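Translate structure to sequence.
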């Protein structure tokens, strides 16, 4: 399975619900070009993670818990600032890229928790939140039932405009994306321009994301 570098991941960014391949959650959007993304340790934090049950079965509700603490004092942090109306964004993607969820853990006691269900397979979990003006990204694996159920990724390009809740959005991507090299993607309200016409200016409400894909 190709690994997604922490400099590139997709987020909801206020675009409504639906937007999954075969999952649930919010439609993907993109973050700002100048956003600083760091691992928890670089932000002076520790993230303790747990799933209940620890070995979830396909279709079984699983609760995912994130306990964010100050690395120096050990104090639990439960007052993360809102980022696009939520304190934490959690993105779950299966190894074959066929299942996607964007959900939002909420404070329960001294943890951020959310419950979901997933089909069998191996998943990557990206939890994203803000700390001192930087985006913190905690990435970890989760296996549900048989990890081999998802198999290798098999995708076909689809850059056509998508409409969700009456809003049509187009994605403009570079013609060639190479592992380990920076690439810029533009997400914008559709104005009739074909995706391969080039990105053009990003209008009000449009977002750009520049990142790297690891092989």
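Result:
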């Amino acid at each position: 399975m190709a690994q997604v570098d922490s400099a590139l991941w997709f987020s909801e960014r206020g675009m409504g619900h639906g937007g999954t391949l075969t999952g649930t959650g919010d439609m993907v959007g993109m973050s700002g070009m100048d956003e600083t993304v760091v691992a928890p340790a670089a932000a002076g934090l520790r993230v303790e993670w747990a799933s209940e049950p620890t070995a979830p079965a396909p279709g079984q509700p699983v609760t995912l818990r994130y306990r964010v603490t100050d690395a120096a004092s050990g104090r639990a942090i439960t007052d993360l600032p809102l980022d696009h109306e939520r304190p934490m964004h959690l993105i779950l993607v299966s190894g074959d890229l066929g299942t996607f969820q964007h959900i939002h853990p909420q404070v329960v006691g001294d943890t951020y928790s959310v419950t979901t269900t997933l089909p069998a397979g191996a998943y990557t979990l990206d939890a994203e939140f803000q700390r001192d003006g930087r985006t913190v990204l905690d990435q970890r694996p989760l296996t549900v039932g048989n990890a081999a159920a998802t198999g290798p990724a098999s995708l076909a390009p689809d850059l056509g405009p998508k409409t969700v809740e009456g809003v049509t959005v187009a994605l403009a991507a570079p013609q060639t994306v190479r592992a380990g090299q920076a690439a810029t993607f533009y997400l914008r309200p559709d104005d009739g321009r074909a995706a391969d016409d080039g990105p053009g200016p990003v209008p009000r409400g449009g977002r750009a994301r520049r990142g790297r894909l690891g092989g």
